[in-house]
Amino acid sequence: xxxxxxxxxxxxxxxxxxxxxxxxxxxxxxxxxxxxxxxxxxxxxxxxxxxxxxxxxxxxxxxxxxxxxxxxxxxxxxxxxxxxxxxxxxxxxxxxxxxxxxxxxxxxxxxxxxxxxxxxxxxxxxxxxxxxxxxxxxxxxxxxxxxxx
Amino acid sequence: xxxxxxxxxxxxxxxxxxxxxxxxxxxxxxxxxxxxxxxxxxxxxxxxxxxxxxxxxxxxxxxxxxxxxxxxxxxxxxxxxxxxxxxxxxxxxxxxxxxxxxxxxxxxxxxxxxxxxxxxxxxxxxxxxxxxxxxxxxx
Lengths: 149, 139
Hints:
The structure holds two protein chains of two kinds. Chain A is 62% helix and 7% strand. Chain A has five helices and two strands; from the N terminus they run H-H-E-E-H-H-H. In chain A, a hairpin with a 2-residue loop joins strand 1 (52-56) and strand 2 (59-63). Chain B is of the alpha+beta class. The longest helix of chain B has 17 residues, at 2-18. Chain B is globular. The A-B interface holds A 41, 44-45, 48-49, 51-58, 60, 63, 127, 130-135, 137-138, 141, 145, 147-149 and B 3, 6-7, 10, 23-25, 27-29, 33, 43-52, 78-82, 84, 90-91, 93-96, 134.
């Protein structure tokens, strides 16, 4: 054995120790379109469909969550919207490291705002957040969705 | 009870008979955005909701009316934020109102329309969104 050969096992162990934790073993399944259709849109509907005004021949009706289960549905939708923003930031869904990330962060934030409105059981806030959430969606779609217009 | 039944029946008529042809949020690629059609009819329902407002409009045959516009149409507007900035609100229209709408029909020929503007009784236009269509064509 050469004089320094005995050092090799120690150097190998030392080097592996400097690598730090390995990336989490994420396995993204849905592409962006599938994520939108199967996760984000239904979650958005839970918020959007909870409020609003509808005029029919029978009269004018204001939609609002009535039971705890109704409010829980809005809360669940809000949470899914918020966490979906994080899912959109993951590779390979992220389209770039700039505007895409900001748009995804905006989705996280609007989900958090919707969650707070649902927690407060504030019908007007849920309605207003729903309108703002549309703007968040549209701002991203304008930039990234093919043939949006 | 009678009222509830009526509501359920109305919903069934809307869902089965007229249908809401569009998913909650979608692109404008579904519509012929370069084509504007005028629809003169009666409001069946007015939905001040997100992500898109909707007007269900019934167009009856009438002298001078384009036969292609006859029927009941789901006219889709923007979000309440977008429409609100143009002056729309939850009471802009109600069921039974006689109105004139101009919009862009769906490419597949189904009875869906993307709203361009409404003509108010005084002749003024109430736009869906002044930014549409592209370049302000037809404004």
